Amino acid sequence: MTTASQPAAALVRSPPPAVRWRVWPLVQAGPANALVVVAITAAAAMVGLATRNPAWALVALVLTSAAAWRLFVPITFEINSQGVFQEFLGRRERISWRAIHGCQPGQAGVFLSLGGPLPLFRGLYVPWQSHRTEVLALLDYYLVQIRQDERALEFEIQP
Fold it and tell me: Burial, 50: exposed, middle or buried (Cβ in 10 Å; 0-12, 13-18, 19+)?
């Protein structure tokens, strides 16, 4: 015997389990990122040769290394019911689900857009390594849930 509440209960999805993993591109990616280190060093050397000043070479090395900091530092990502976390150098940052305006999956990870005037420059790229299925399931579950909650709120507010 079926009741009216059984079909509705079947539509309720349970959240996927949280996932946590560590990314350290310089160590894990191998030769590809070694080429980036060589390119950074070569660029600094070219600046030093062009200016004939080792101080400017050092400045170039520091600035380009700072721009590529994510290669040199291990980062731990965690995705759970509270949002997306990234942990690096003893600092833990959270992006709540409501702050994420969209996501663009790629070949090796997903870009989480945080909106704003230049959304492609404001966000977080999350490399998923071997966690592609889990990451996409979590994004699908929580982002769809947030959008449904927002639409329900808009519906209740409108006269």
Answer: exposed
Q: Rounded to whole angstroms, how far apart are CA atoms 109 and 52?
A: 41
Residue whose pair of structure tokens reads 């492609």 in the numeric block: 120
Q: Which three-class secondary structure state does DSSP give residue 74?
A: coil
Tell me, what's the pLDDT at 69?
A: 87
16 Cα distance to chain centroid: 18
pTM for the model stands at 0.75
The number of CA neighbours under 13 Å toward the Cβ of 95 is 24
| Cβ–Cβ under 8 Å, residues 97 and 83 | yes
The residues facing 127 across adjacent strands are: 109
Q: How far is CA 109 from CA 6, 8, 50, in A?
A: 38, 34, 38
